[in-house]
């Protein structure tokens, strides 16, 4: 009896020494015995005391799942590697570069078909090669859209709660490196440039490429906020004419104002600013990598004296255009909805998309750095809104009736078309025709411009439409699940040793 009581007492002591899974608001001790706050928040797809992993939820097959990490209390110089057992030796997109080894704190990967996929993350100390932790979890991929159809609203029509959740979600993406990962992709899309046309700008894929791009961002924001009701707000900048500089969108109430010339144009207040100045709270800090014009978000309103903002009358005229695009299908096109919306037909429609970028200045005025300014999503949601309305007004269901061009095997694409290449005896503009894979994910224009697909994702509410708060939390089965093995590295060995000691002591006591 004494032996059993002694064994029970020692086992209780063992379990009291074992690492606890701290609640999101508790404090924990790391390996150096310093107390730190546990990682927390509903946005974390996977959360342990020292490691949190973000993974895009509700993604569909063939679209990218972005994975990001926050590591606290681990090795200063960490090596992070990922594996996907069901995919084998798959390659990932890392730092804006495709077909890379799946290593690093943030990357994206394509799951080709619907199902549940295992993911493993291994973190080691690069200096000593010592294992810090290995964790596994799963990602669920759907056949098609798995999110209830959302409603994108004008920024000014959001409730206080809706705007607050959008801001918080954006900052979570920033913390996990996901926002910067997406920004690097937008930058890298300009590197594949032929004549006046790149993978994402200056050509027919401008509108479908950005529709896919901001849709990926929208799903990430929903994951970050654990709220499927989060949608991209749009900024109807024609409504702010002629007093564009006085737009409430460009104030601290929303995306923040102009940069301060005394600190190199840094934005110093609002929800996205430079926290090194006293007017910017630490919770609003929005750093930008130095190689992309950082370390701060910068704006220089109207510094580009040639920048113009299109009017509602010019937008109405563009909406009446019948054809999506016309030869030469680049920045030199003089007709077509795409060229007009992008901002190349200046004498008729003004600068449209391009003018807003140029006028705001800072990172936003340069395509490779523009996504680092969060106003990007509101601007491009507005561009997409007008394309959406144009498609609906024409009754577009696919490429027919001038709804998209160039189509597959389009006779208007020939040897004289800038950037065209002959593939299997047919002249094509790679990455821009109806069924072409767009860089970097392989999504085609037909995947985002076919009405039966994109109309299930979201609709656009007219400006001035009242809204009400109706959050929709993501249920556990729709995204990543908790770590299969969440015990910190070394706990099992610690437990076995203590259990062995307990058994030896209890046996010894029985002989007393």
Automatic annotation (TrEMBL):
Key words, A-Z: Copper, Metal-binding, Signal
Superkingdom of origin organism: Eukaryota
UniProt keyword Transmembrane helix, yes or no: no
Lineage: Eukaryota, Fungi, Dikarya, Basidiomycota, Agaricomycotina
MF (Gene Ontology): metal ion binding; oxidoreductase activity
Protein name, as recorded: Di-copper centre-containing protein
Domain Tyrosinase copper-binding: 373-384
InterPro entries: Di-copper_centre_dom_sf, Tyrosinase/Hemocyanin, Tyrosinase_Cu-bd
Organism: Dacryopinax primogenitus (strain DJM 731)
One Pfam family per UniProt: Tyrosinase
């Amino acid at each position: 009896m004494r032996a059993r009581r002694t064994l029970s007492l020692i086992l209780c002591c063992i379990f009291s020494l074992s690492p606890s899974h701290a609640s999101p608001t508790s404090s924990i001790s790391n390996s150096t015995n310093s107390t730190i706050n546990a990682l927390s928040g509903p946005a974390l797809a996977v959360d342990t005391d020292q490691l949190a992993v973000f993974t895009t939820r509700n993604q569909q097959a063939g679209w990218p799942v972005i994975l990001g990490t926050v590591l606290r209390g681990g090795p200063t110089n960490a090596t992070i590697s990922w594996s996907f057992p069901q995919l084998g030796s798959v390659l990932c997109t890392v730092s804006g570069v495709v077909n890379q080894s799946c290593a690093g704190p943030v990357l994206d990967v394509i799951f080709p078909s619907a199902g549940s996929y295992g993911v493993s993350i291994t973190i080691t100390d690069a200096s000593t090669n010592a294992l810090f932790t290995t964790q596994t979890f799963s990602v669920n991929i759907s056949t098609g859209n798995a999110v209830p159809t959302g409603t994108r609203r004008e920024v000014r029509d959001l409730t206080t709660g809706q705007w607050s959740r959008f801001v918080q979600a954006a900052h979570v993406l920033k913390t996990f490196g996901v926002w910067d990962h997406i920004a690097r992709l937008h930058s890298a899309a300009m590197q594949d440039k032929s004549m006046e046309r790149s993978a994402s700008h200056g050509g027919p894929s401008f509108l479908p490429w950005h529709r896919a791009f901001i849709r990926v961002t929208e799903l990430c924001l929903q994951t970050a906020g654990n709220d499927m009701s989060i949608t991209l707000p749009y900024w109807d900048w024609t409504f702010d004419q002629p007093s564009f500089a006085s737009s409430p969108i460009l104030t601290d109430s929303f995306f923040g104002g102009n940069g301060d010339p005394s600190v190199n144009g840094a934005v110093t207040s609002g929800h996205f600013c430079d926290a090194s100045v006293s007017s910017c709270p630490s919770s609003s800090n929005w750093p930008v990598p130095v190689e992309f014009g950082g370390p701060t978000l910068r704006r220089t309103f109207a510094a580009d004296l040639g920048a113009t903002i299109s009017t509602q009358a010019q937008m109405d005229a563009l909406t009446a255009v019948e054809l999506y695009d016309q030869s030469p299908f680049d920045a030199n096109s003089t007709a077509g909805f795409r060229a007009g919306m992008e901002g190349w037909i200046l004498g008729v429609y003004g600068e449209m998309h391009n003018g807003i970028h140029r006028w705001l200045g800072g990172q936003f005025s340069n395509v490779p750095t523009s996504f680092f300014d969060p106003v990007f999503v509101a601007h491009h949601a507005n561009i997409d809104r007008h394309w959406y309305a144009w498609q609906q007004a024409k009754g577009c269901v696919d490429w027919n009736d001038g709804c998209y061009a160039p189509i597959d095997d389009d006779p208007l694409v020939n040897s004289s078309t800038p950037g065209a290449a002959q593939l299997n005896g047919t002249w094509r503009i790679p990455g821009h025709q109806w069924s072409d894979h767009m860089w970097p994910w392989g999504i085609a224009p037909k995947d985002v411009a076919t009405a039966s697909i994109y109309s299930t994702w979201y609709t656009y509410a007219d400006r001035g439409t009242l809204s009400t708060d109706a959050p929709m939390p993501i249920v556990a089965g729709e995204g990543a699940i908790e770590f299969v093995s969440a015990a910190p590295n070394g706990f099992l060995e610690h437990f076995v040793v203590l259990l062995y000691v307990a058994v030896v002591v209890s046996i010894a006591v029985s002989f007393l």
